[in-house]
Sequence to fold (164 residues):
Amino acid sequence: MTESINTKVAADQARETTRKAAAKIEQFAIDTQMPEAIRTLAEKNIAQTQELYARSKDALEALLESWEQTFGAAGQGVAALNRKVIDMTQRNINSGFDFAKSLAGAKTVAEAIELHSTYWRNQLNTLETQAEEMRELSTRVTADVVEPTKAQMKRVTGDFQKAT
Fold:
């Protein structure tokens, strides 16, 4: 009986020690300040990366426009899909830059964690919406490509039957 009481007391003490340690760690995370130099460096890196992205985006758009001019009916659908992908990518990248800027401005680790959590929650919702947009567009493009193909196959089959 004494042994089970000692075990219970030891377990209670261990739980209390763990609670105290967790409380200290939590308080440390809340009170820890982001150094100004790190925030400044992060903001500078974000600005440089955003500038590089803008230059790359312009080159990609120019290339896409030249491709659009060479496609027929199927190509127009592919171009629409490419435009949609580029639009979604741009929105996602811009969202990432906005997140990085807000994260660089975080004053505490707790604030940074909250920003991170909110960003990913919003990003998952956005990705779900974007997947639905791509499904709808690809269904329309497929229908636009299949109909002329079906018509052509009927003509070829009809011509073949007339010839035999």
Summary: Residues 13 and 129 are 50 Å apart (CA to CA). The chain has four helices and no strands. The mean pLDDT is 79.
